[in-house]
Amino acid sequence: MNAIQMTGITKRFGDLVANDNVDFELKAGEIHALLGENGAGKTTLMRILYGLYHADEGDIQVNGRRVSIVSPKDAIHNRIGMVTQHFTLVSTLTVAENLTLGEKGSITINKRTIEQKISDAAEQYGIPVKPDALISSLSVGERQRVEILKALNRNAKVLILDEPTAVLVPQEVDVLFEVLERLRKSGLSVVFISHKLNEVMALCDRISVLRLGKMAGTVVKGETNKTELACMMVGHETFGVKRQGKAPRGKVILRVENLSLRDKKGLDTLRDVSFEVHTGEILGIAGVSGNGQSELTGILSGTIKPTGGQFHLEDRNLTGTEPLQITRAGIGRIAEDRHASLVGELTVAENIALEYLDEFVSHGVLDRKKIHQNAEKLIKEYDIKARPEDRLRTLSGGNMQKVILARTLSREPKFVLASQPTRGLDVGATDYVDHRLLDQRDRGAAVLLLSEDLDEIMSLSDRVAVIYEGQIVGILPIEEVTREKLGLMMCGSIGKQKT
Amino acid sequence: MKFKIVKVPATIWMRVLIPVLSILVTFIITSILILIAGGNPLEAYYYFLIAPLSDRVSALEVLVKATPLLLTGACAIFAFTAGYWNIGGEGQFLAGAFAATGAGIMLVDVPPAVSIPVMILVSFLAGALWALIPAWLKAKLAVDEVVTTLLFNSIILFIIAYTLNNFWRNPLTGWPQSPEISETAHFLRLIPRSRLHMGFLVALVVIVIEWFVLARTSLGLKMRALGMGKTAARFAGINVNGTLFIAALVSGGFAGLAGGGDIAGIHFHLIEAVASGLGYSGIIVAMFAALNPLAVIPSALFIGLIDTGAQGVSRALGLPTYLGDTVQTTLLLVTLAMFVLVNYRIKKV
Question: In sequence order, what DSSP letters do the residues of A11-22 get, joined into one string?
Fold first, then answer.
């Protein structure tokens, strides 16, 4: 009898099938990894189990009994607990107060009982926290342990952890693993959502791999290895269109040296990132999202200031300059979040003019004719399905992306920064964007392509770098790239190597 | 049967209908209050909306009441468009009134051709100056401008109270009331034997200028971009802090003009109650105009009408004048709610 048995789970979001007939079983007393790329459906599956989403099809059994879970309340009742990536603690209250929130059965709060419970748990599971400490005074790792305590306090027998190590510094990861070992010993089952192979292999008993919403398989740790897991994760099929010819690689346009970024919580999101991009080449940066791509994009776009290192465009040091200097120096930026680079309430024409506004102004007054004509020309050139005076928010995602391409690429930048340029686009729009990027390379621009989509990376890039935990773990010429190699590197199990 | 709420952007004609519907809903809600106060709602609305327009004197009074509202409305719109939530219109109004009084007292033996432009300039600069520190705190230290601009309203009020109770106290009556400003500093009357003064025209000019700046200039486009998508504006290379700074100061200047205008055109001396909420009413005017600079004109006239009507209601029906304020604030809440709710639909599941 399994602690949890999920059968035939299907969940759709509009046209997207996030979980496609997925079976998942969890034994009592095991740590079970749920492995997969971003968007593979790991979190969706567990959110269904915890009652945050409702499955369109399929059923769930807890200890062999079929149950209906439509809200976290039902999940808690079935002794399932979940620690999400974003903690749900009230930071102005103490640990003990947070644990009593949502308790039922009594109006008064028995402080002594709850403190006793916390110190018991602390001893049993090795979770050292002070009951009267304010949440705001705790580190991220400590807060996470409070979340675990919260679930235990509700008598959870199954604990779901969604990418628990993503927010932790390495020392705290070790503490977390010790806690999880002790929980396993005392008979709890743990689901550990992750994309990091090393952690999964170090901690878990069994591993289930999700790929594109489908269950790729479940394996026992002793009977598998990292290469097999990486293959299961990224799949085997050969990738898209082969590019014709190889453009002659020219001089270095962008030089990035030891870029580092430490965020406000003291987490190193980028560590000594160095690479060069030449004229006439596309350098792809592959990686599971959240490994520093956004930060790298932000720094090269001028919206984030690095805490170390620098970057040059040709011989000009642009480190820490504002977006205005960045664009004027010849960097064209296609940002990962369309809504952070376009203003929905402005018109298409205004959005196109916004980046080079000084060219559309005489004596401080907008040259509306010029703005309109420029937009009309680019709408035709880039086949945008919109009129110049349409509000941008009325456009489809693909057309918004074309507005960005038009605004950026019509300037013929020396260096094109394209971050997740096809995220959320349909096949036709994706193809369009990809070809425009190849055009840029053929024109002689240096292109940096950051993408989670391995097919895209492998079909467009001349060289591929892999980013993992804020570090470039290797740069390979396209001839040496295989899906397996990239898969292993993206999961951090092949270390630093340079070519 | 189950229902769910889905987000659907409002159509243009729905947005156009909002002011009309808001007025309707406001009247339904405030009818209840009028009934409780012992009045007949229909009769009350006759005095609110129709009676003021039925004779020349009170119709002109509507324009008089609308004059400062046009400017404090312009003040709110200019800042809000750039995403700078200036709640300090009241304080900037007072600063303008304070400075205009000072200038008006000193301007003796100067021809009106000089003294009136000086009054206008001084009022504008004083309002802008009073907006300076909150704007600076926002730009340098990211201090929330809602809090600082609001607190600055009290500060200037206390400064004025102190001045009126010491240096400017009327030596004869002992009232906390400044000396009269000299006659050369008075705004010209537009129509004899009425209170309507040239401040009304100044306000109209300001509104046209504001419309032009916001709709037709590069500064205006930057401000609109900033207000509607700060991240995207920054990404596109717009100087966020510089633009916010200009928006804040000019906005303050508009409110300052309103204050100076009331001194030079209505009161001719300073009293503590000179603003009495006109700065805050500007927010209502701006919201009711959906932040459209030109729509401020009908919006301010409507609020001016209710202000004028409130006195008639109180005289004729013996209801408190506060009903006027109640109608205004209810209108604000209803309008704000409409702007949000118009973007949602209830659908059957």
Answer: EEETTEEEEEEE
